[in-house]
Amino acid sequence: MSNRVSPGAVGLVLASCASLQLGGAVATHVFPHAGPWGVTTIRLLVAGLLLFAIARPAVRDWTRTQWVAVGLFAVTLAGMNGFYYAAIALIPLAPAVTIEFIGPLLLAALLSRGAREFLWVGLAAGGLALLGWDSWTGESLDPWGVTWALVAGAFWMGYILASRRVGELVPGQGGLAVAFLLAAAMVVPFGAGGVATILDSPGLLGLAVLTAVLASLIPYSFELVALRSLPPAVFGVLLALEPVFAALIGWVVLGQTASVALLVAVAMVVAASMGTTLTARR
């Protein structure tokens, strides 16, 4: 892989971040009718069906080891997506993404076992503490929304490990396609009522499909192309800007305001994520 940074690839990653958060913003308009788990089910199902049609994985030839890896990957996808949507149904996009980011930051520190990585986690924890203080003294964040964001972050940790394993064992995009479908099946018990509501309304179905395209297909496709020409460190730094895009999309699309304390907390978590990426041991 070339170490030269392609402006086009940078643009794809930034567009991916924007698309992901825009998809979340669209999803919030469906939550009052179908709930976050109903939207999650449709999103995973649509993304899985489209990707399966494109990848056409030879699942009959998969070994038990491959199926177990894909199954665990599906568990992390279901939890990460479902609990994140449960979070943004209760709290604004920016604090939800900022809180969720503690998961991959903590994983990076645990895997590296280096003191400086834990310092970055400490910086992120300081940002979360600032969020807590802002919630206590200003506009309160729903405790369940915060809890679901933390749970989503924990599943994000598992997603990082599981996706790496699937990438090693399953060629192409077949592993992701099947994992999407399995994840959709896993969340059906929680979202069945919402799915029925969505399928009964062409307008809601259109918004749900748009959510799947914006929050799953576009980000994954853009990042896959970008990774071919971007150094991993640059890619990681760009992804660290997701809380910024969450704050921007939340403000522009949903009219969600951000206090000074929230913006400082976002900056602290972004800095911690960038620092973790740039100082990671190779």
Automatic annotation (TrEMBL):
Keywords: Membrane, Transmembrane, Transmembrane helix. PROSITE patterns: PROKAR_LIPOPROTEIN. The chain crosses the membrane at residues 37-55, 67-87, 93-111, 118-138, 144-162, 174-198, 204-222, 234-254, 260-280. GO terms for cellular component: membrane. The keyword Membrane applies. It is found in: Membrane. This is EamA family transporter. It comes from Corynebacterium pollutisoli. The lineage of its organism: Bacteria, Bacillati, Actinomycetota, Actinomycetes, Mycobacteriales.
